[in-house]
Automatic annotation (TrEMBL):
This is Uncharacterized protein. Gene3D superfamilies: SGNH hydrolase. InterPro entries: SGNH_hydro_sf. Belongs to the PC-esterase family.
Length: 329
């Protein structure tokens, strides 16, 4: 896959307003986009990927911290950033919940100031929702996500491109936002995230949003996962940015022949823009995954709950175990 460069992204987003709302994965996507838009044709450094709020390594982005001053892994965390020039407006809002007060405020601001409406909205939210709000977390997530999508659709004009990004896979020893989550529950959440992603993707499709399934894109790329077991390196983030660019180009009716080679991968991506990636995934288990499952059944699991899982959940567990123990490109 040919990765996007700064000139291509600069021109694509020229005179555009891009709003990104989500967790730390989305913050890294924001950083990579801002880095490219200002002409820096390089990857983010590890320090830049980890930086937040007013950390020194955020200075290279030449953006502004609009709000946020406390580093914490609880639900009070807040961060609002903006990169603004006479040709580009790119804004990031950290969400600890899909329809948090921060998300509501952003939508209220858009509704009240209709002269400044995003041309592109990128959204993700799942891990915080289902780990930091314990009581009925999945049920509440489902209700709040629908309320969030309904509100977006009622406020945002139809020409705005809205892209939902699914939650990425994480290791059984993941830390950060999952620091306080018990090991057994982390293992179970690695399985549950398949169903949660499927639900959120189908809901996004219902509201005519596009879907980029990050779990599908990076699940085989565990060698690019950071030491915290939760985040991914700069190469993965440049690939994610490239996929986002392709979706935006398709949505803006750009001439695809100028950007793509006529290969199967590009045809699939453009096809996804038309009918959403969820249509070609059977609950996010692809035909390639099924071939692996037919050959691979591990009995060496340190997971007490394995006997309590249904067949689909066991298949997901086998699959994740295979990818994490067999790193390949």
């Amino acid at each position: 896959m040919d990765l996007v460069d700064s000139e291509r992204l600069y021109n694509l987003l020229r005179n555009k307003y891009v709003l990104l709302c989500g967790d730390s994965i989305m913050r890294s996507i924001y950083k990579d986009i801002v880095l490219l838009v200002q002409g820096q044709n390089r990857l983010l450094t590890n320090d830049e990927l980890r930086a937040k709020l007013d950390d020194h390594d955020m200075l290279t982005l030449n953006d502004q911290l609009l709000a946020g001053d406390k580093k914490t892994n609880d639900t009070s965390y807040y961060e609002r950033r903006c990169y603004f020039t006479n040709t580009h407006l790119i804004k990031f809002v950290f969400l600890t919940r899909c329809f948090s007060s921060q998300m509501r405020n952003e939508l209220r601001e858009i509704e009240e100031n209709k002269s400044i409406v995003p041309d592109v909205i990128l959204l993700n939210s799942a891990i915080w929702d289902i780990t930091k709000y314990e009581k009925n977390s999945e049920r509440d997530y489902a209700q709040l996500l629908e309320e969030c999508f309904r509100s977006i659709r009622s406020i945002i004009p139809p020409q705005t491109i809205v892209i939902w990004l699914t939650a990425t896979p994480f290791s059984k020893n993941a830390c950060g936002v999952l620091d306080e989550t018990r090991s057994e529950k982390k293992n179970f959440l690695r399985i549950r995230i398949f169903d949660i992603n499927t639900f959120s993707s189908q809901l996004a499709k219902k509201y005519n949003f596009q879907v980029i399934d990050l779990h599908y894109l990076v699940r085989k790329r565990t060698q690019h996962r950071c030491k915290d077991g939760m985040h991914y390196d700069a190469i993965i983030h440049r690939e994610i940015t490239t996929h986002i660019v392709r979706y935006i180009e398709c949505g803006l009716n750009k001439n695809l022949s100028n950007s793509y080679n006529d290969d199967q991968d590009n045809n699939l991506i453009c096809n996804d823009v038309i009918k959403s990636i969820i249509n070609k995934i059977d609950y996010q288990i692809t035909s390639d995954d099924k071939e692996i499952l037919d050959k691979y059944r591990s009995s060496n699991f340190n997971f007490d709950m394995i006997e309590n899982l249904n067949e689909k959940e066991k298949a997901v567990f086998y699959l994740l175990d295979h990818y994490e123990n067999n790193c390949f490109q």
